[in-house]
Specification:
This protein is α/β, with parallel strands linked by helices. The chain has 12 helices and 13 strands.
């Protein structure tokens, strides 16, 4: 029997209470809750499941890589463990996934998936935590009269608090905003470039309400399959981490939550995305959400580089870190000029060696702002032994853009 392939999962070092070091696996789709801790050996075996070979056929390859005999029985035990947790693309997962999508479609709002973990779920503790983060950038707000766009991180608040601080402190004194269009990276698979939802985003201090009229215009522009990827919102943090700051700072503002799929899945690395039919349809849909009569700010919830062994790259070294930072800052300078096409090429050329997960939302924000110019507020490298994630905060202004 051919073994079904392993699903795309978040994998990270994980230590049990007894000190045993494992690989932690988390489902970015949120179909499976919690973390599954498995041995590095079991994870490596499962990572070889490709949907084309059975247990016996995989044994020769695995035995050569392990330097010891791997039996079909061991491969089968790993298959059972991963299948029981719905981590393989098999019939069991398909049934659970269909039910999960239907349940999410019926829900009146999108639950705060990361409350109680990444940030407090109790209202007063939540307000205190976010207010303390904002205060870290006190006095650092830029002298920008009309903010129209913002690049903010979507990394966890523990590592990203100073950068979130500089990003959202820049919005504290800009006055009334009717609507925030939030463009977030979709870390799970999507079939299209843009995934809207009409669901309000819950927070510990009440829901960030969606502008359903704007969402309806987006859906009309996208066509009949506009909501095919709506389930991607269920567990995705890239919009949630923007919505919590918006709800605190602008409690009456509405949001337009739009998850962005991978541009590189639709365009070659040396291609100019402009003119690509799917890209232009997504740009038109975002612009359809802008109402000249209502003040709108567009936010790209976007981290930058992801390098190191954790992401399948070379070991962390001073040379890697320096070259990554140099490349990031050069790309951010291009983004600050408002040139979406050069931004794409600066990141994607060469196969996106920095693994920039904010490529799509920043591209679409620049296209929607159409001529806005940005100012870099903060850049940071979040480093550990096996990885480096880089993040930035940049504010944009364009007084010529109607409604923005």
């Amino acid at each position: 029997m051919t073994i079904p392939p392993l699903r795309p999962l978040d994998a990270f070092p994980y230590e049990e209470e007894n000190g045993r070091k494992l690989i932690g696996l988390r489902d970015p789709l949120g179909v499976v809750d919690g973390v599954l801790g498995v041995s590095p050996e079991a994870f490596f075996i499962a990572s070889q499941f490709d949907g084309e070979h059975d247990a016996a056929q995989l044994c020769d390859r695995l035995s050569q890589q392990f330097g010891a005999r791997v039996t079909p029985e061991l491969v089968e035990r790993v298959r059972v463990i991963f299948s029981e947790r719905a981590l393989l693309q098999d019939e069991k997962f398909s049934k659970i996934y269909v039910n999960a999508r239907e349940e999410f479609a019926r829900s009146a709002s999108r639950a705060a998936a990361h409350a109680g973990g990444n940030y407090p779920d109790e209202p007063e503790a939540f307000r205190l935590r976010l207010s303390n983060i904002l205060d870290e950038a006190e006095g650092a707000q830029p002298a920008v009269r009309e903010v129209t766009g913002l690049i903010a991180p979507h990394i966890d608040l523990e590592r990203g608090h100073l950068t979130y601080s500089h990003a959202y402190a820049a919005l504290k004194n800009i006055g009334h905003v009717d609507r925030f269009i939030i463009l977030g990276t979709s870390h799970g698979p999507t079939s299209g470039l843009l995934a809207p939802t009409r669901k309000d985003y819950e927070t510990p201090i009440g829901a960030a309400r969606t502008d359903r009229e704007a969402i309806d215009r987006v859906a009309v522009a996208l066509g009949d399959d506009a909501y095919d990827d709506e389930y991607a919102h269920k567990n995705e943090h890239s919009i949630e981490f923007q919505a919590i700051f918006i709800k605190l700072l602008f409690p009456d503002a509405q949001i337009v939550p739009l998850l962005c799929g991978s541009l590189r899945s639709f365009c070659s690395d040396d291609e100019d995305p402009a003119g690509n039919p799917q890209v232009e349809a997504a740009v038109a849909a975002i612009r359809a959400a802008i109402d000249p009569a209502r003040r709108t700010v567009i936010i790209a919830g976007a981290d930058l580089a992801h390098v190191g062994p954790r992401f399948g790259g070379p070991p962390i070294s001073p040379e890697l870190l320096n070259s990554t930072e140099t490349g990031d800052l050069a790309s951010l300078e291009i983004a600050a000029s408002g040139d979406a096409h050069r931004w794409y090429r600066s990141v994607a050329n060469g196969g996106d060696p920095r693994n920039t997960c904010g490529l799509s939302p920043i591209y679409f924000m620049l296209r929607a702002l159409d001529g806005a110019h940005g100012r870099l507020l903060r850049y940071r490298r979040c480093e550990s032994a096996d990885q480096c994630v880089t993040i930035g905060a940049m504010v944009f202004s364009n007084t010529n853009a109607p409604g923005v």
